[in-house]
Amino acid sequence: MNKIDYSVYLVTDRDILQSRDLCEAVEESILGGATVVQLREKYISFEEFVKLGKKLHKITQKYNIPLIINDNVDVAIEVGAEGVHVGQGDEELSKVRAKIGDKIIGVSVENVEEALIAQEGGADYLGIGSIFYTGSKKDINIPIGLEGLKKIVESVNIPNVAIGGIHLDNVREVMKTKTDGVAVISEILGKEDIREATAILKNYVKEGIEMNNFAKVISEIREKKPIVYQITNTVTINDCANVTLAIGASPIMSFCEDELEDVLSFASALVINIGTMDKSMRKIVVKAGKIANKLGKPVILDPVGAGATQARKELVEKLLEKVKFAVIKGNVAEIKAIYGMKNESNRGVDSVESSDNIEEIAKELAIKYNCVIAATGKVDLVTDGKRVAKIENGDIVLGSVTGTGCMTGALIGSACGATEDYFTGAITMISTMGIAGEKAKLQGNGNGNFRQIIMDTVYQMNEEEFLNSAKIRVE
Length: 475
Fold this sequence. Notes:
The chain is of the alpha/beta class. 49% of the residues lie in helices and 16% in strands.
């Protein structure tokens, strides 16, 4: 079996099913998206446990879903299950491993000390909890809460799932702790439509995992400190350099053709912004892009004012022909101009053309150029041609500060220099700028003040702040 997906971990309880058949219920849950099944039986004989386990195992094997047996190693061996889960009062981990070999072993823990002992002892995953009060276990201590969960998750480096009292109304907060999944009973088996209940829970968990991945980009930038070479708009060059520093990357701002090869040899990413276009710049951006491609460095294009003039149109066409881009970021009018549509309202960097059909256009462009397309607007859109993310952060005040679009390009360059997942990186940085705009609206009193708040918000951004503020939907 490949790497285990612990995101939706179903724990069985025949009592909650009342007259419904357990195997049928489990199959419905698997069809809804359950990724692991734990068979938990406290009050039946060994023979009955084995018989039920074998019956259930036929179903889980059919869908390549691991079956874990709760507490009973001998039953797990007899059934041929993929693993066993043991508690603190059960058989010692070393003895369990000696019996079960390389099968999966999960261990229940409720504090950091227990978690570290289990990890060092060779546990494959941890069941952490109880997080909240629950009716399914009468013998638990006081719930450890979200803070207790977070401490354990941060202390270990093996997969883990949260368990105990988890429902739709708290699962988003649970996933913010960066646990790998949730283990539930009643939230699935207690529902009339088990398949639908599982699918709904899975979407909540998936959303939480995606948000954690977005937030992680911020830490990756600060840890790796990528060097971002920017051939950019001279009107906003200072702000682009400063926002690059604010997010934790290092900027290089140069228009010298003679040093392109040298600079790109150690740069982590290249940002091309055609805002203040002149003859020399038109020449070096194409050359720089080709060198970056040769060196395997991601290139980000900000086609400022694309389509506004014939010269800009020709430069963008040449860049698209000669250079492979990781991300192309523009406002709706600029993205439509690249697509080849007539954009009469595209007269400069503040173009605000209608976003009609922008999702289809962006997806087509992403497929055509094999890159990520980011179209900024009232609702920002990012796509790799398959997935589409919609970002609802931001405020109109961003339009009152010159260069926030250019700064967003610089942030995307910083992300692409730190992660190879350009889709995730672009989403995180666009959302970050949007959050900064929201803060500026709340705290500022003029566009000079807005700029300072935007910069400071980016500087202070961390994973926790991002998770509490980002408004992202991935479709």
